[in-house]
What does this fold into?
Amino acid sequence: MIKGIVIQKKRITFAGHKKEVVKLNLVKEKMYLTAEKKQEIFTQYGKDVANTGSPESQVALFSFRINHLTEHLKGNRKDFGTQKALLKLVGKRRRLLDYLKEQDINRYREIIKELNIRK
It folds into this structure.
């Protein structure tokens, strides 16, 4: 993920001719969702590191990503690609929560309470 571009200008003289050389440096941003963070989420909500497909762990992972994208959009209001991705994630999470509600209402209520999700 690229955070920004740093442009460095330098004037050089070569055979009597002055020339400007432009050098671009790409500054990398630290990833917000590392493998360790995913394992932590799956352990906390999926009850096991290997249980990555349970609805609770998926909802928790989606919630983490939704919170990150929401913070990004607060500073970048015109980032419509991120806005579309955020809406898709919210829809996925909603469908998973609806499925969980149909299967086991107690698990649904528990995950809603833990993650502070509005109904």
The longest strand covers residues 2-14.
